[in-house]
Amino acid sequence: MRIEEHVALAPYTTFKIGGSADYFCNVRTKRDLEDALAFCRKKSIPFSIVGGGSNLLISDSGFRGLVIKIELRGRLSRDIDTNFVEVSVAAGENWDTFVEEAVLRGVYGIENLSGIPGSVGGTPIQNVGAYGAEVADVIVSVTACNAETGTWHRFTADECKFDYRTSYFKTLVGRKYIISEVTFRLQKQGRLNTSYKDLTNYFIEHKELPTLLSVRRAVLEIRSRKFPDLQTYGTAGSFFKNPIVSASVAARVCKLFPNIPLFSVSKNKTKIPAAWLIEHVGGFKGSTSRNVGSFQNQALVVVNYGDAKADDVMEFGNNIINDIYAKTGIQLEREVQLVGVFDVQ
Ligand code: EPU
């Protein structure tokens, strides 16, 4: 495995933003990963992991340490019984290629997660979700290397502590684990879930019965309307998480904005769509500042319309955070992962 120096990172992200890494390597085997982590320990430098680069905002000054690009490949499928199949997929595999293969094979469970950019290894970290499904529903285990000791551990789904857009791997103690493989349990005879509003409407409008293939087609079509073409513009998808608030906060916000859509998560927890706040409370939808904007078809998506800098993106995001906080008392949290040091905090 070769460790390069002074490597530009922007091309490795879908935002197309960021400075250079002091050190950079491609990891193709588990041994490569162990060596890369040993290099960091020896030099006492930090590491940062890049998979598909679809949820990252890298600082304009880059990263003072080793950036490890996960290129682990391969998948292994096991028949469990008449109902289930388990597939172990290496972290560097493209997520949507895996979803497409599952749909073509006729196995259920991830069709609603079609069209999400990025690699398989990134999906458990933020418990990727869309259109009424999330990877936590189908993950059996996650294999990861402890960066401090170089030893391997297999996490059960429970140990992953999945929640809305988060997991153990995002916590202070969990961050030292580098994911090499994820095992999914998919169903041979599944039930399709088209209860998400956009999907329900699609099948009503198209007068079509949902099948595995048509659900994938529907999700891809809906996504193509809501997200900018990654070949044309840079983006990391949703820039913020949807805030989850207590019943009393939800009631207060509802009094201020009676049209706000609210989604009950549990008895005392309500999810508020950040996109709605950004569009209807902040008025930011479709607005731009220094080549950074909130996408005209989905307010939660922040777009790099030209040669935007990471600091411009941060400033744009901070304006939204401050404005929504001033008007509602709700503090939006960024969903994108920040890498490196930022001038604009
Ligand atoms: N809405 C607006 N304005 C907009 C867009 C949406 O007011 O411009 C309101 C609507 O009321 C809509 C609600 O917000 O009903 C929810 O919108 P949408 O269904 O588009 O989903 P979202 O909550 O904004 C989440 C995920 C997306 C995922 C979609 C579809 C998060 C942070 N984002 O967005 O995930 O694709 O649901 O299921 O949970 C990502 O994480 O990068 C991502 C794109």
Average pLDDT, rounded to a whole number, is 97
What ligands can be seen in this structure?
Answer: uridine-diphosphate-2(N-acetylglucosaminyl) butyric acid
Beta fraction:
25-35%
Determine the CATH topology of the largest domain. Answer: Uridine Diphospho-n-acetylenolpyruvylglucosamine Reductase, domain 3
Describe this structure in words.
- By secondary structure, the protein is α+β, with helices and mostly antiparallel strands.
- It folds into four domains: 68 residues, 2-Layer Sandwich (Uridine Diphospho-n-acetylenolpyruvylglucosamine Reductase, domain 2), CATH 3.30.43; 113 residues, Uridine Diphospho-n-acetylenolpyruvylglucosamine Reductase, domain 3; 30 residues, no CATH class; 106 residues, UDP-N-acetylenolpyruvoylglucosamine reductase, C-terminal domain (Uridine Diphospho-n-acetylenolpyruvylglucosamine Reductase, domain 1, Alpha-Beta Complex), CATH 3.90.78.
- The protein is built from seven helices and 20 strands.
- A five-stranded antiparallel beta sheet has the order 6-7-12-10-11.
- The model has no long low-confidence stretch (mean pLDDT 97).
- Bound molecules: uridine-diphosphate-2(N-acetylglucosaminyl) butyric acid.
- Uridine-diphosphate-2(N-acetylglucosaminyl) butyric acid binds next to helix 3, strand 13 and helix 6.
